[in-house]
Design brief:
It is elongated, with a radius of gyration of 29 Å. Mean pLDDT is 81; it is low at 1-24, 48-58 and 190-200. By secondary structure, it is α/β, with parallel strands linked by helices. The strands form two sheets. It has a five-stranded parallel sheet, sandwiched between helices. Strands 5-7 form a two-stranded antiparallel ribbon. It is built from eleven helices and seven strands. 45% of the residues lie in helices and 12% in strands.
Length: 330
Amino acid sequence: EGGGRGGGWGGGGGGRGYWDWRWATWRPRMRRVWAVLLGLAVIARARKPNPVPWPERPHTLLLVIKGMHVGSAWLKELVELQAPTAHFIHEANMCVRTVDDIRRLLSWGTCEALNRVPSQLGCLSFGRGNFGKENMKDWAVVARELAEQPPVATRPRLIVASLIRTNAAKWAWSLYRKQELEQVNHMYTSSMQGAPTKAGARVRVNVSEFVRVMVDMVHRHRKVQQDAVALAKLLNATTAAHLTYERLQVDSLNMVKHLFEVAGEPFSAEAHSGGTGIVKAAPEDLSLAIENVDELRAHPSIASSCYQSMFVPIAKEMLPCDGGPPWLQY
């Protein structure tokens, strides 16, 4: 009896016993393998982009390339006054981290944050860091793919815009107060408890560093506009506008209305007039914020009338002071 059982399980008593043993060993392993494969299939299906994520008709994507401290949070609030027509994702870096992200965004308008609020005009803002040499290679890969494919109804129409600031003195102060003083640049009226910078609370700035930042601004913001033009050309997209913070201050209604007109979407002046609740925290008159403003203005690197005009206590678009062409405008 012992020999018979040994033959059945041990492999020495016949072929059938041998294969029964192998199957008893591998069957639970195969079940685990199939469970893993099934799980991967479910995950892959869940991640597959929805070919029709927007209701009823093709939509438009507005890609805004921006500098630092140029009012992009304010632009977001201005655009979203037109909700539900428009939805704006500020600092949308998570939407373009990989080639696959860019492909989904440009092919179907899919971005997890964007698709939480379906609308006809999806707007995303990006810092210049997303359009460096290596990043542009990823955009170029997707652009070539799309150019080789026939047009499809679900592919969004693409519009590119830029957003910069033209007043170098006030831009430098915005950076200084954020980085050195840890002050906010905009406040919401619902949470305001007094302006962070006001008369009687002036500070002394490092003049040479402040001037260096002022002079560097022109180069930085020319690159922002150039990147927007390059991206629009690469994607065969419409260039909607080269926006400036100062022009938004003077005439935000017509600036934002222009974006909606290019996108072919309705714009409500009444909704725009409701305001955003954002208040500019820094004063237009820098002498109210900077104690050594006279020493700053006397620096030889900014002695030209171009730079000196930037200390005027009013919101006004300024010319670049590098002797080059004026800022791009549409």
